[in-house]
Amino acid sequence: MEIDLLFFINLFLDTLSYWWVIVPSIFLGLIVGAIPGFSAANTIIILLPFTLIMEVEVGLIFMIALYSSSRMGAGIPAILVNIPGTAGAAATPLDGYPMTKSGRGQQALAISFVSSTLGGLLTTVLAIAAMPILAKVGFYMHSVEMVVVMLFGISLIASIAAKDTLKGLIAGFFGLMIGSIGADHVYATPRGTFGFLEFYDGVPLIPALVGLFAVSEALLVIEGESVLVKKKQIEEDHSSWNETIIGMKIAFKHWWHITWNSLIGLVVGVIPGAGASIASFVAYQQSRTYSKTPELYGTGHPPGLIAPESANNGVTSGTLIPLLVLGIPGGATAAIMMVVLQYQGVNTGPRLFLDNPTLGYGVFMAMFVTYLFMLLTIMPLSRYMSRVTLISTVYMSPLIISFTLIGSYVPRTYMFDMYLAFAFGIIGYIARKTGYHVAAILIGVILGPLLEQYMLRALKMSDGDVMVLFRSDLANVLWIVLVVTLSFPYIMKKFRSRKDTPPDKPEGQENVFAKD
Q1: CB atoms closer than 10 angstroms to residue 303
Q2: Residue 373 near residue 19, CB atoms below 8 Å
Q3: Structure confidence by residue, pLDDT tens digits, 5-57
Q4: CA atoms of 232 and 230, how far apart (whole Å)
Q5: Within 10 Å of residue 234's Cβ, how many Cβ atoms?
């Protein structure tokens, strides 16, 4: 079959005919993504019997639509009530929630929706165009290179610590310390488990996530009548479609920001084992580093919301490339899709695009069409979703705590995880009250174990030689970029201070009109 423009046009029109599958899947994905603890992966597992009896095209379109929309859904509670639905949305509330607290929740949702859909659309097109090249990224990104990529995300702790260095670093190292709990990666010796078997696999992410953000926020907002102050409540109650339009304009104005952050998500997504959490933290860190106004990040700055939302939606198409091209699933959802394909007698790998190009390229076309539908169906909801912030904390806080504790139970079905989520909630509440940033703690919990895993793997292959970190050409390039990234803010700060300082006047040229 000849692969040309006519082929993709026909494939696009054929995919549109499955709107009856895509639209319900989008709304299901939004709900799934918005509930902490639930994800596209465990939802597809629950519905696996249905996907197996469907035609292979229908089953794949259903899973793709659910997967893509759940990414966007995870950002909704992160923006409105400071509860990331998944670890991939952990960086979203850093600027999304401050926008909501200032009465710009509708704007924030519109920015998030546009950034997510444009990021997803762009990376899907690039995935189709550059699939052979992107497929090789997984071969070049080994343990050494991944160590440097992890450091990009962890260096965000230093950015957060810029406002209060000591407290920021204490919070970050506290998170790294918690992340080291569990069996070590070499000898499987338990560390810091306090005798709890539930800690042997490490600290589970969902209880840590919902505890630090959701439970602590619920305990905090219950001290007031609403998330918004009285003036902002009145403004939100009388808001119109104009706020959504303003948010869309802001997002489109930052089209270049969306482009390069979604590319970060695409590249990180191609790497098997990496994921949206890494992509969102790296994107946020890079966005803040090269911004002309880094001091605005964390205060409700739109680029700080655009970066993680466009990156974690760029991951979606990236994770499917190693699955379809190499037969290696790039994540949990991709692994389930591989099970469905194999059950239907479809073998993934290079032959897929030769033997059945309609199915191979159809996966990405389904994602492209899904993002188009999402832009049209979800954008009008931003006005009504933002009204969640008007609910009294008397009702909201118990609901948040109840749903998040249930969500923390779902992934492993351990009662222990519910208690753990509440314990993290107490830690998060104390941290917020004393001026420590919970995001810095969470970065350490999420990225710390991954950094240790790749670091130990690299050292094991080199018999303990630390210089292995500098023997790869790609790793050396990444090291240089990391050094430039970390030093750039200080160089720009020094440059601006020199620029703002008026030059000394030569002696004897004082202002003769100045008063004594």
Answers
A1: 21
A2: yes
A3: 888 899 999 999 999 999 999 999 888 888 776 778 878 888 888 888 888 88
A4: 6
A5: 13
